[in-house]
Predict the 3D structure of the following.
Amino acid sequence: MKYLKNIGKYFIMLGQVFKKPQKRSVFFENLFKEVEELGLKSLGIVAFISFFVGGVVAIQTGLNVDNPWIPKYLIGFATKRSIILEFAPTFMAIILAGKVGSYITSSIGTMRVTEQIDALEVMGINALNHLVLPKVISTVLFYPFIVLLAMFLGILGGWISGFATGLFTSDQYIIGIREDFKPFLIQYSLIKTMVFAFVIATVPSFYGFYVKGGSLEVGKASTKAVVWTSVVIIVLNYFLTQMLLG
Amino acid sequence: MIEVTNLQKSFAENHVLKGITASFKKGDTSLIIGSSGSGKTVFLKCLLGLFEPDDGDICYDGKHYSKMTLKEKRDLRKEMGMVFQSGALFDSETIENNIMFPLKMFTNNSYEEMLERVNFVLNRVHLENVNNKFPAELSGGMQKRVAIARAIVMNPKYLFCDEPNSGLDPRTAIVIDNLIQEITDEYQMITIINTHDMNSVMEIGEKIIFLKDGLKAWEGESSTIFKTDNEAVTDFVYSSNLFKKVREVYNK
């Protein structure tokens, strides 16, 4: 019953979020701040993880493909497919749910428990629209670029791991990543990313905005937000894959 | 004028406000006093529109809150200033941005015009050279003064203060009390202050409402509060040793 109530409250919250901003100049100022805070500041961790996980995927595939009848270029092909289809959109979304989700919940939650949200509302400002809409727009528009970067660096990491381990040659890897290239798979990945970005911005905002109590409750809300954002991403990933590729 | 009629508010089984009726006039500084849990903050939050009353009515200069649309309520709030107990300053923004924020949201003034207004209100609360500081860099008393500056930057008709001098030393508390009263007189606002500080009552208590268990138990002025026979009020007023001693000396 409590879960149903929260789901209803979440959609009511979205109704308040998607209102016309009260002042366009203030909205754009907030939007650029959020692009920096939620997007640009995540580039480092995304680049680091993508590069090394790409390398690990290539090595694991190389080590498991020891049958001489299976061509080596399949290592590049499998690495590319894994990265484009799942690793870049889904794995990155889970990582960003942890990094960005906890930031969103704790920042909005702290504003709530220190009466800063009350101060906004007393001024006649739609606090949900003011605080959450710039986060939603910035993540939905910016995360596809982050995922494209993750794809590139993941594939690059796989290529470099070939030199380091000697499991495959550069030519074999490049033939593999060019093999059976389907542009729709990139589109599929970016569609998933935009849906996940929406979840990453809204679910933690929900937990932060409605937190009650003090700093301990804000901490608990951050943990809950990360868990539920991850759960929603995994469930949506299943349905989106079924709908778009099934 | 703000007229409150039979205001009631409950949270689950907890009946916090049990029917409060009061009126507040323009240019008056009114104090809501009472011990912790008497319903002061809930009463103030109902006046601010942060809590929806379960029953009763609040009328702001002839406009009934319960009959207003969401937009009308938001417009009404633009005429309100609020000084929160914690200050509620935006901690990631500078003092200048904190005070300028309502101006950015609700006016089309140029940056220079807004800055002029910010400096004017900062000067009014006796603060200088703090524009580029962050709230955490200021003392509690200075933060309260910034909160007052932010509350009056839009020239509000109604000013609400929730325990504005809690956590301050007695001298700074008096400075804040006097500042609020001066500003109320100057701008002819309706000012309502929640407090349990008897020094404030002595200093600026033009009109005092005493709440007990969610009901208005007494109403009067600072000159009459020490002479009342109301047992609840005398218990509250003389709960501190200082006031007990003052009473003993006065009786002798």
